[in-house]
Amino acid sequence: MRLLQADNLTVAIGGRQLIEGLNWHVHRGEFWCVLGKNGSGKSSLLYTLAGLLPVAAGQLQLAGESIASLSLPALARRRGLMQQQQSDAFSHSVLDTVLLGRTPYRIGAAWDADEDRDAALAALARTGLSEKLHADITQLSGGERQRVALASLLAQAPHLMLMDEPTAHQDVAQQLAIMRIARELTSLHAVVASCHDINLAARFATHVLMLGDGRYWMGKSSEVLQPQILEQAFGCGFRVQGEVFIAE
After folding, report:
1. Which of 55, 74, 173, 184 is the most exposed, having the fewest neighbouring CB atoms within 10 Å of its CB?
2. What is the pTM of this model?
3. For the chain, which domains are there?
4. Integer Cα distance of 172 and 243 in angstroms
């Protein structure tokens, strides 16, 4: 099922065009990693897809419907974003923070239903945070706080899951765990994640969108992750040693 369709999409910020004329389809069952050097538009693309930045030009559809025709609760059930940085102005428990992801399913309800709490607890277990249930989010490490954000996205369970640098602030074991979760989610969802680690993308992503200076490449990971394409996108040489990409 096609969950995202971008037609001639232009992404811009501060009057500067980062991506122009992007035609892109994302289907359920796909895990897309968005790669490119700093400033190429990876995060801005995800923020545009999530509605936090306006569409500069072109059209976006979610499951065959224009985003302009969908209500905010409907949009929240179809797409969700895990941001790269979290800002917490007030103390809050980890569980209550994750339960915010259930908001699109309880519009008008004063309290969380049993199914909301079950979804939040399952998400915390999946991200290895069950023991932090009642912890204050302002007292967590950066990596733990990012995993709380991931758990909230899991509890929200939108059709299209957008993740901006989901492995940021994580140790090696947690990077692998998060990428495994992202790949597993494709059984029911589509996942699009910006990423800096080419080798993690090669190992886990089904597809890659590579952003360069005014250009882009897309397709199955094995087709896009080629030294000649990487060299054009990043401006440095690459070689493959075994199954590992090494920049030179």
Report:
1. 173
2. 0.95
3. 2-247 (3.40.50.300)
4. 18
